[in-house]
Amino acid sequence: MEHLLQVEHVVRKFGGLTAVDDVSLYLNEHELVALIGPNGAGKTTLFNLLTGMVPATSGVIDLQTNKQKYDLTHKNAMQIADLGLSRTFQNIRLFKNLSVMENVLTAMTSKYKEGFMTAVLRLPSFYRTEQEMKSEAHQLLEIFNLSAEEQTLAKNLPYGIQRRLEIVRALATHPQILFLDEPAAGMNPEETADLTDLIKYIQEQFKITVLLIEHDMSLVMNLAQRIYVLDQGKVLASGEPAQIKANPQVIKAYLGEGAD
Amino acid sequence: MKANWKYILSWLIMIIAGFYLINILIMVGVIDSFIENMLVMIGINIILATGLNLIIGFSGQFSLGHAGFMAIGAYTTAIITQHFDSELGFIISLIVGIVLASIIALIVGTATFIRLKGDYLAIATLGVAEIIRNIINNLKITGGSAGMFNIPPLSSWPTVYIMVCLTTIVLLNFIRSRNGRAIKAVREDELAAEAMGINTTKWKVEAFILGGATAAIAGSMQAAYVQTISPSNFGIMESISILVIVVLGGVGSMTGTFLAAIVLGILDTVLQNFGALRMVIYAIALILIMLFKPSGLLGNWEFSFKKIIPTNKKERD
């Protein structure tokens, strides 16, 4: 069976340091996969490789979609985003001085065409496109309970809502694969539980593949269908949650004794 | 759509009222040629500074080469209208100036924006403006360092007034569209913008071209109004004085740019009676404003009829 995303023997070196060392993994359609591992294992670097923020030193990344094969290895972040790979960031990177609404609309920039002249001369098609974009943004914000905050500047939102908005913004690009980099970082157990439901909901309702990096094991074990464990740039283990929990190497390197 | 007509109408009324107000004041004699000259200079500075504010305040790219684009417009108009001394010649020269400035902005923007940011970009754009000035300085057709004289007086205050309105409408429509959101996103966080599929270089260059084109319009207006231009008019001091207007008004506020251009224009005119002290007082005024209002006169606040006229349709912002 062809996988949606196939990563083969990817290596990334920073000077003398090999951050990602010969990693191979795959993602299937509508799968929810987690990437775990200790700090400095290369998880975020791997995300940066997959989303084109950093070029790979060697290796191949292939996307199989619409019966076509795309080699992502030499594509930049913008081209990869256009192919339907979207992400959030470990340190929230919203457009801070733009409103919630504008943040979502901005993510739709490349999905809606609106020429320079139509905008400057305010031709009827300008109002149509704006209307379409806004109503789509409204729907998204409605689903994620952000309607009341539409005009609030992103920087003025509470931390947890900023994280949620970042996910909404990523969804506004119509992704096939959503990469979530530590979505539960800094959240309390209650917020984490809400987030778990939210991610589950997104994966089912939007019919997308999710790959997430997370340190919160309760969230990972609840959500993930498969797990990759990364340690010192290498894939230490992979498999279903139950297998990972029982893997002695993983327990030694990351989970620690007595983890559930 | 219906709600929008209210705002469009409000703006239209304001533009026409402004025009007739100035017209009447000139007829009554309140505005003499001295004040009229001041108004035209303010208008030209508004065109220049709103264009630069688009580049600096909205797309977040630090450009110090605005005077270069102004020079392109000014010399194009001077050269063309000396051969075709008519309204049509002036309009053609305006268009040629815009096209030339856009092409140069496209080349410079594509070459520099991919690699350079912040201070380095400022120096590169400054360099480009100096190159333009030096080319003009050494060409025969531009009159060398002596400049050009007896340019036909094809621009007057109504022309400048109309061009101020037109360029402002174009810039504001640009900012309040998908284009404007994209360039603001690039300003806010380039990496995140790229991850959202936004072509950051393309949008930065587009804003730069639009800014450069408006600067060329201002240059054309100046050449046809003052009737004399020389390369020394378009040096680094001109670029900086446009930058001062932008910073003083508030980086990212077009309303602020208008206000700052008017305040500085009046200040400059009033201080002409103080002789040598003029530049000192001018500088002190700038320092005081920056000390007490570091974000500029208006920060990033914008005037809008939508804030004044209530609307029941919530989704219009």
From TrEMBL, chain A:
<protein>
    <submittedName>
        <fullName>ABC transporter ATP-binding protein</fullName>
    </submittedName>
</protein>
<dbReference type="InterPro" id="IPR051120">
    <property type="entry name" value="ABC_AA/LPS_Transport"/>
</dbReference>
<dbReference type="GO" id="GO:0016887">
    <property type="term" value="F:ATP hydrolysis activity"/>
</dbReference>
<dbReference type="GO" id="GO:0005886">
    <property type="term" value="C:plasma membrane"/>
</dbReference>
<dbReference type="GO" id="GO:0015188">
    <property type="term" value="F:L-isoleucine transmembrane transporter activity"/>
</dbReference>
<keyword id="KW-0547">Nucleotide-binding</keyword>
<keyword id="KW-0813">Transport</keyword>
<dbReference type="Pfam" id="PF00005">
    <property type="entry name" value="ABC_tran"/>
</dbReference>
<dbReference type="InterPro" id="IPR003593">
    <property type="entry name" value="AAA+_ATPase"/>
</dbReference>
<dbReference type="Pfam" id="PF12399">
    <property type="entry name" value="BCA_ABC_TP_C"/>
</dbReference>
<dbReference type="InterPro" id="IPR027417">
    <property type="entry name" value="P-loop_NTPase"/>
</dbReference>
<feature type="domain" description="ABC transporter">
    <location>
        <begin position="5"/>
        <end position="257"/>
    </location>
</feature>
<dbReference type="InterPro" id="IPR032823">
    <property type="entry name" value="BCA_ABC_TP_C"/>
</dbReference>
<dbReference type="GO" id="GO:1903805">
    <property type="term" value="P:L-valine import across plasma membrane"/>
</dbReference>
<dbReference type="GO" id="GO:0015808">
    <property type="term" value="P:L-alanine transport"/>
</dbReference>
<keyword id="KW-0067">ATP-binding</keyword>
<dbReference type="GO" id="GO:0005524">
    <property type="term" value="F:ATP binding"/>
</dbReference>
<dbReference type="GO" id="GO:0042941">
    <property type="term" value="P:D-alanine transmembrane transport"/>
</dbReference>
<dbReference type="GO" id="GO:1903806">
    <property type="term" value="P:L-isoleucine import across plasma membrane"/>
</dbReference>
<dbReference type="InterPro" id="IPR003439">
    <property type="entry name" value="ABC_transporter-like_ATP-bd"/>
</dbReference>
<dbReference type="GO" id="GO:0015192">
    <property type="term" value="F:L-phenylalanine transmembrane transporter activity"/>
</dbReference>
<dbReference type="GO" id="GO:0005304">
    <property type="term" value="F:L-valine transmembrane transporter activity"/>
</dbReference>
From TrEMBL, chain B:
<keyword id="KW-0472">Membrane</keyword>
<dbReference type="InterPro" id="IPR001851">
    <property type="entry name" value="ABC_transp_permease"/>
</dbReference>
<dbReference type="Pfam" id="PF02653">
    <property type="entry name" value="BPD_transp_2"/>
</dbReference>
<feature type="transmembrane region" description="Helical">
    <location>
        <begin position="279"/>
        <end position="298"/>
    </location>
</feature>
<keyword id="KW-0812">Transmembrane</keyword>
<dbReference type="GO" id="GO:0015658">
    <property type="term" value="F:branched-chain amino acid transmembrane transporter activity"/>
</dbReference>
<feature type="transmembrane region" description="Helical">
    <location>
        <begin position="90"/>
        <end position="113"/>
    </location>
</feature>
<feature type="transmembrane region" description="Helical">
    <location>
        <begin position="120"/>
        <end position="136"/>
    </location>
</feature>
<feature type="transmembrane region" description="Helical">
    <location>
        <begin position="7"/>
        <end position="31"/>
    </location>
</feature>
<feature type="transmembrane region" description="Helical">
    <location>
        <begin position="63"/>
        <end position="84"/>
    </location>
</feature>
<keyword id="KW-1003">Cell membrane</keyword>
<feature type="transmembrane region" description="Helical">
    <location>
        <begin position="156"/>
        <end position="175"/>
    </location>
</feature>
<keyword id="KW-1133">Transmembrane helix</keyword>
<dbReference type="InterPro" id="IPR043428">
    <property type="entry name" value="LivM-like"/>
</dbReference>
<feature type="transmembrane region" description="Helical">
    <location>
        <begin position="242"/>
        <end position="267"/>
    </location>
</feature>
<dbReference type="GO" id="GO:0005886">
    <property type="term" value="C:plasma membrane"/>
</dbReference>
<protein>
    <submittedName>
        <fullName>Branched-chain amino acid transport system permease protein</fullName>
    </submittedName>
</protein>
<feature type="transmembrane region" description="Helical">
    <location>
        <begin position="37"/>
        <end position="56"/>
    </location>
</feature>
